[in-house]
Design a protein that fits this description.
By secondary structure, the protein is an alpha+beta fold. It is 24% helix and 14% strand. The structure holds zinc ion (2 copies).
């Protein structure tokens, strides 16, 4: 028995790495060189950085099996080198995600899932209206209004002076 209780969280001195591939929801393959002792949670963090998706929304699937235990490592899941994992987004009750229309005025485009959600207002936007400026974000409007009011005040005070001067 060479495999003693060395399953500690500290990295061993001679760690092997292997290459795996992760296919994301859009079909892009992301190659990763990682250690077989990498946990699913670490892998999800890496993928969240690569895909700009929130970690909580990433589901990893290998050979049809959902890798749901985040503390389990790749070797414990018996994932061999050069395997392809699949990235899936959560399905609510087995139903496909509801199509959301872009919230911008009368835009008919589909809102982009997750990346189309604006962090400054409650809207969901398509690729064209995703940015604050493009959908005239409420959050942005507040800032504009403030500076506009400040300008108006200034104008009013100037006008008062002018009237007084007549
Ligand atoms: Zn739009
Ligand atoms: Zn917004």
């Amino acid at each position: 028995m060479r495999r003693t209780s060395s399953i500690s969280s500290t990295a061993s001195s001679e760690e092997d790495t292997m290459q795996i591939f992760v296919k994301d929801v859009s079909g892009t393959t992301i190659p990763l060189t990682i250690s077989p002792s990498t946990s699913i949670s670490t892998l999800r963090t890496l993928l969240a950085l690569r895909t700009n998706l929130p970690t909580a929304d990433l589901r990893l699937v290998h050979a049809g099996k959902h890798l749901s235990s985040t503390s389990t490592t790749l070797s414990e899941y018996a994932i061999p080198p050069n395997s392809t994992l699949h990235l899936a987004l959560p399905m609510r009750g087995g139903m496909p995600p509801k199509k959301i229309r872009c919230s911008f005025k009368d835009c008919k485009d589909r809102a982009q899932p997750i990346v189309g959600d604006c962090g400054f207002c409650t809207g969901h936007y398509c690729g064209k209206h995703r940015l604050l400026e493009d959908h005239k974000c409420d959050g942005l409007e507040d800032c504009k209004k403030e500076s506009h009011e400040r300008n108006a005040d200034k104008l009013n005070s100037e006008r008062t002076v002018a009237i007084r001067g007549v």
